[in-house]
Amino acid sequence: MINLQKDGAVYTLTMTAGENRWNTNLVRAFAAALDEVAASEGPAAVVITSALEKFFSNGLDLDWVQGTEPGEGGDQKAFTAEFMQLMGRIITYPVPTVSAINGHAFGAGFMLALCTDVRVMRADRGFCCANELAIGMRIPDEELALFRHKLSGSAFFDTVQLARRWSAPEAVAAGFVAEALPLEDLLAGAQKRAAALAPLGANRALFGASKERIFGEAPSINQPHGAAHLLRSRAH
Description:
Elements (H helix, E strand, L loop, with lengths): L1 E6 L2 E6 L8 H15 L6 E6 L4 E3 L4 H4 L10 H16 L5 E5 L2 E3 L1 H8 L2 E5 L5 E2 L11 H10 L2 H8 L7 H7 L4 E3 L1 H15 L6 H12 L11 H6 L4
Parallel strand pairs: 2-3, 3-5, 4-6, 5-7, 6-8, 7-9
Antiparallel strand pairs: 1-2
Helix pairs in contact: 1-3, 3-4, 5-6
């Protein structure tokens, strides 16, 4: 489900579960890879991408989450809390993180991308979209908090209320994607950015504490709680 490779100070975490629909097994495999990076020392940064060019992550494993197909997703009861806690961990992860969005990032996949520090996106195809309203689902408060922290006011409204599908050029113009690149240059471009940021990850405590001030229990922006606090506090 996850392949983790290291080149110098850059770790490339590749999701290999097809469309990378989220279930408990994917959450736990992802968390284990993060554990490995966190246990390292010295400069470090993480690039997150997908092995499947069409999809970065196509959201929740809905058939499994809704119980219509048992599948092999793992412990259903643990999923919501563990997924939200994973997103809270990523947004405050103590080394720089870069998403290389090489295909569609829908719903929970868009959440993952927004939890990282920097996003680069495939220029020619693929959308970022919070499609919950479009498919008849309520957006959780924790997800709203994440989007509110990471998107401008107009992009936030278009994303959560109008279910807008953002192409790479539109996402760059809206300010939440740093760069749109051809597919053949995407991963290398993300890794180059990660390598430049990796020295910031040498001091894990300082880098992580700074993120906690922005996204954690005592955010420096005008919100009662940080996005990470809400994500990590989800009980079920």
